[in-house]
Design brief:
This is Alpha/beta hydrolase. The chain has 269 residues and is of the alpha/beta class. It has a single domain, classed as Alpha/Beta hydrolase fold, catalytic domain (Rossmann fold, 3-Layer(aba) Sandwich). It contains eight helices and ten strands. Helix 7 (226-234) links the parallel strand 9 (213-218) and strand 10.
C-alpha cells in the first residue's frame, strides 16, 4: 500500500517541463515571454512583456521557494513551482511596468552546473543567491529604462526582496506577501531544519530606514504564520514607514491573486 501511494505521488507530480509550460501559458495571456538572465555565477529566469515600455518605476515580483521539498525530509530534484503565485500577481498588476524574477534553478534543467540543491534548501537565501538576484535586477532596470524599483516578494521571495532592498539605493518600496522575514524564527516555530547557509532578513532590517514597506500575511496561513512578520516589524528602527496587515480569510495561497489589483493600488507610488 505504501509503495502504491509513493508511486501515485510520483505520477501526479508534474515534470519540470510541464511546470514550465504552465508558467509559459500564464505569461502568454498577457503577451509576456520567458528569458534567461546571466546573473553573477548563475542564470535566473524572468518573465516580462515582449515589448517593454520605458518607465521610471519597475515593479519586480520575486517568486517563492517553489517545489523545494517533496516531503518533510526529501528535497525535490528541481524547485520549479507548480503554482507560480508571484507570476500570477505580476500578471494582474493593474497599471505600470512589471516583471517577474524566478529563484535559482526554477524553470531550468537540473543538469546546469550552478543548480545545486542547497540553493533551494538550507542555502536558499545565501549570499550567492542574493548577489545573482541583485545582478538580475540591474538587467531588468535596463530593459525598462527604469530608475527606481518596487520589490514584491512572495513567501521565500519576500526574504530575497527584503535582503535586496537592504543593499540597494533605488528601491522606492517593499511589499512582502506571506514573506519569510525571519527564517530562524520560522524554522524554530514550525520545527523545520534550520537554513544554516542563508542570510536572514531580520539581521538587515536596520538598513531599511527610509524604505516604505507593506508586509501582508494571511490570518489563516499555517505555512508562514503572522507572527513571523509581526516579529520583524516590531524590531524595525522606523516602524512608521512599515505597515503590517493580517488579512482575515487569506492563507498562504488564497486569496492573493483575486485581491491583488486592489491591494497593489493601495501601496504603489
Amino acid at each position: 500500500m505504501l509503495l502504491a501511494q509513493l508511486l501515485a505521488g510520483c505520477v501526479s507530480l508534474p515534470s519540470v517541463a510541464e511546470r514550465t509550460v504552465h508558467a509559459d501559458d500564464l505569461a502568454a495571456t498577457k503577451d509576456w515571454q520567458r528569458l534567461q538572465l546571466p546573473a553573477a555565477n548563475m542564470e535566473l529566469v524572468t518573465y516580462l512583456p515582449r515589448a517593454p515600455r520605458p518607465g521610471p518605476v519597475l515593479t519586480v515580483y520575486i517568486e517563492g521557494d517553489g517545489l523545494a521539498w517533496i516531503s518533510s525530509n526529501r528535497p525535490s530534484l528541481n524547485p520549479t513551482p507548480r503554482h507560480p503565485l508571484a507570476l500570477q500577481l505580476a500578471l494582474v498588476q493593474p497599471r505600470g511596468n512589471a516583471a517577474y524574477l524566478a529563484r535559482p534553478c526554477q524553470y531550468l534543467q537540473d543538469s546546469l552546473s550552478a543548480c545545486q540543491q542547497r540553493y533551494w534548501t538550507d542555502a536558499r537565501f545565501a549570499e550567492a543567491v542574493i548577489a545573482a538576484s541583485n545582478a538580475a535586477l540591474d538587467q531588468l532596470k535596463q530593459r525598462f529604462a527604469a530608475h527606481k524599483l518596487l520589490l514584491v516578494g512572495y513567501s521565500g521571495g519576500g526574504a530575497v526582496a527584503t535582503l535586496l532592498a537592504a543593499r540597494r539605493d533605488d528601491v522606492v518600496g517593499l511589499i512582502t506577501v506571506a514573506g519569510n522575514l525571519d527564517h530562524q524564527h520560522w524554522t524554530e516555530l514550525l520545527h523545520l531544519s534550520p537554513l544554516k547557509r542563508s542570510l536572514n532578513p531580520v539581521q538587515v532590517r536596520d538598513r531599511l530606514q527610509g524604505v516604505p514597506q507593506w508586509h501582508l500575511v494571511g490570518g489563516r496561513d499555517r505555512i508562514m504564520p503572522p507572527s513571523i512578520a509581526q516579529h520583524f516589524v516590531a524590531g524595525l528602527p522606523e516602524p512608521a514607514l512599515a505597515r503590517l496587515e493580517v488579512l482575515d480569510g487569506f492563507d498562504h495561497s488564497c486569496c492573493w491573486v483575486a485581491q491583488w489589483p486592489r491591494l497593489w493600488s493601495e501601496f504603489a507610488p
